[in-house]
Protein 1
Amino acid sequence: MTDARMSSISDIFRIGRGPSSSHTIGPGRASLLMMERYPDCDRFRVTLYGSLAKTGRGHGTDRAIAETFGDIPCEILWEPDTDPGSLPHPNTMRFEGFTSGEKTADVRIMSIGGGAIQVEGEEREESSGIYSETTFGSIAEFCRQDSMSLSDYVFYNEPGIKEHLRAVWAQMRSTIIHGLEAEGTLPGGLEVKRRAKDLYIYGSRNRDLVKKERFLISAYAYASSEENASTGMMVTAPTCGACGVLPAVLYYEQQLFAPDEEQIISALAVAGIIGQVIRTNASVSGAQAGCQAEVGSACSMAAGALCSLRGLGMENIECAAELAMEHCLGLTCDPVGGLVQIPCIERNAVGALRAYDAASLSEVIFDNRKVSFDDVVLTMYETGKDLSSIYRETSEGGLARLYVNKP
Ligand code: SF4
């Protein structure tokens, strides 16, 4: 495990527009950084490499960059065939800035997942360390010594984070409500029909309580993910592509049990610290480690948050987070057409249901585990690095390839 200090959980929860944290929010933030650092540049050229070049059109990377630069002219070049070994990260951008025709800036910036960026040769932009503990095991040990809950550990280290989490929860609710009302097809040309409203109606009217639960959780996950796919406002959790999992389970719990907002904020804190442990020791980027790093991480976060809401302890939280991730291992990233729609939207619903199952299982099996959460995080990262690049957000393999080749 790395010995870097962990940054704020606000890096896990960013409020912005979809459909992809690494392909729209990250490039947009990188463009803004260039404008701030080089205010004299009157023209930019941005070259996209790796996953950004292969799926950036479907994800809207060019639009995110152009919108950020606004009136400043910006040329975008696509370089999908560059040797991945020559790149510092699968999501690399080269920004060249010009002032009166002369090149005055030449910087490579990586979009490292969840909307975070890193300038080549520099520390992560948000790497000011807040948390001394960087593994779940060391955090749990700290909490045990001070008889502290996991959410209290977050509030102890980040006294001001509750305000951000309230804004996060407000946006998550708003995204779901908007998504449940919307109808029609999603943009991008795949003609994917919005299904959140159908699922909600079917679930609401269902007399079978088990089915009702499954359909409503799915409806909430679809609502967030469909909003994301249509460039609506959402919250990364930990990414845009996986933005449906955590809000779905929290919203369902709120509708059913009406916990007060402080309980939801505590659950978000638990989800956030789980996400940060994954991000610090492995990755939350589909381009780096496949969908197990996105939806798998979201599953762990949601499972831990559910345990917190149910008043379960540290061992249940760890067990649920571990279970949720363990059964996402090997999950590939193969978005059809480079859009965050197929398989992404369904996958969020399945992820939310898996998080529910993991939290429930943890109530019984938490006390006899053989695998730690930290171990499964490392396993996810090792597995991700072993995945062929065609399964890491390049749309060159899996469903993306089959769909394209279908007669
Ligand atoms: S397959 Fe998973 S990781 Fe890939 S774009 Fe879709 S949600 Fe993101």
Protein 2
Amino acid sequence: MRNIRLSDHSIYIEDIWSNFKDLIENYDHIVVLTDINSRAYCLKEFEMLSELKKFDIITIPTPEQQEKEGTTGENLSVYYIEQFKNQDSCSKIFDRLLECGADRHSLLINLGGGVICDMGGYCASVFMRGMDFIHFPTTLLSQVDASVGGKLGINYRGYKNMVGLFRNPIGVFIHDKFLESLPERELRSGFAEIVKHALTLNYNLWEQLKEMEDIEISNLLPLIEKSIIIKKQIVQTDPTETGKRKVLNFGHTLGHALETSFLKKGEPITHGEAVAAGMAMECYLSMLHYRHDEDWLASILVVLKRFFPKIDIGDKMVLDLLQLIRVDKKNKAGVPHFTFLIDIGNVEYDQIARAKDIRAAVEYYRKNY
Ligand SMILES: NC(=O)c1ccc[n+]([C@@H]2O[C@H](COP(=O)([O-])OP(=O)(O)OC[C@H]3O[C@@H](n4cnc5c(N)ncnc54)[C@H](O)[C@@H]3O)[C@@H](O)[C@H]2O)c1
Ligand SMILES: [Zn+2]
């Protein structure tokens, strides 16, 4: 295990607490941003291990926001925190930063999942034209995905990540023990991105995943490390997603459509659940595209099935999905674009598929997954 160097910061996996102390020693004002769950489950351990004595804390949603939504602190529903990834929360964060006397020389520590990292990084980047920030991701998804690549932002008028920018933290710290309190669905959600990194870019990692019976937190750290390195290599060649970074969209064209469709129905599923089903369908499309045989497809699906239960897609949703992929952010002139697997560890992006094949992919998933 070793720390991962990027152009202007590191992702720390070993000796995280001593590296953390070194990195923060010159900041005399530190603010920690959490959400209600990361505060409940991770803050105490963070305080104890970091030995950080003096800091201000901001928690999203605030009691006022919760009251407005009519919810309580115990609510752990999948979409609960995501709905606070918005301008209102940014205002609350700015208000608190001002209130506690933060300025551009202060440091913001984002202790939470992807929502807190994306939104905290965004707020830090624009507060007084930019203060330093650290990511302390507490979900598997944020450890392997949201913490790498510098994408920051919030949702706007129902559009995901519509407002934001690219900027790097001064450091990212991976503490796998935080994952112990994570609901199983959230763990699987992050695991889907590890599977994606393997399928698209690393045959050896795929071989390793194939051997696994189930997801065990105690064995995850080496996989997290590999996954981060894979994502790092891609984002370094294409920091602002103009080309190669699109390989990371594998499973996401149909995945995003599924995520949106379930959300519209009022039954949100996790990002990873949607992406896992999206990957299964896009493997089917890859099979058609490169004329692989069904055994090729079956050998991938057997692994996906082990980790990701089938999602129930009703007749009505099939039509909705076909509509939704036409308005995807990745489209060009209304034509959905895909990343396809030439083979495991080897992909092509900006690929298109016939509408009838996309429908067949959804139907295949419904019947055979
Ligand atoms: N910047 C990027 O490159 C990038 C990449 C992928 C995803 N994202 C963003 O990340 C977000 C999704 O991230 P996520 O899945 O981490 O969601 P999240 O931040 O909503 O966290 C998921 C749930 O887990 C809870 N939680 C967090 N840590 C916990 C812990 N240790 N124990 C128990 N509960 C805990 C949260 O409160 C929340 O309810 C989305 O907004 C997405 O847009 C960004
Ligand atoms: Zn994703």
